[in-house]
């Protein structure tokens, strides 16, 4: 196909714009990883290297139109850590759309305030572990069933 035909094709332009947006989100995610908040540092200290129930978490992971603070793709769990900027009315409207889209992708979402992560770390981790437990139980159940066959 001739290059001019690609440029005039609306579908090609749409894909190109989507690719540019994905590149921008990836760069934003990298920048966010370089300057985590105190709460994100605390949370990551406990989630990294499969420390919590052996679950593999990623941080500042771009997915669709969003960058997720922490996500365990294997178990379909997103953990968001929110600062004071999320109390703004405009941010609240954006934040209401986000979990709806994520649930449509088959993900569960847990949200915590920065001060909860920093001051009540064990309680936050207990909530995350509880959210992982059903997924871990289903995984173990499948492993046992396949061993029996």
UniProtKB/TrEMBL annotation:
* Keywords carried by this UniProt record: Endonuclease, Hydrolase, Nuclease
The cross-references to InterPro entries, in alphabetical order and at most eight, read: DUF559 (IPR007569), Endonuclease_DUF559_bact (IPR047216), Restrct_endonuc-II-like (IPR011335)
Question: From what superkingdom does this record's organism come?
Answer: Bacteria
Q: Gene3D superfamilies under this entry?
A: VSR Endonuclease
CDD domains annotated for this entry? Endonuclease_DUF559
Q: Does the keyword Nuclease apply?
A: yes
* Sample GO molecular function, one term: endonuclease activity
According to the entry, every stretch annotated as the DUF559 domain falls at 26-132
A Pfam family the protein falls into: DUF559
Q: What is this protein called?
A: Endonuclease domain-containing protein
The protein's organism comes out as Comamonas sediminis
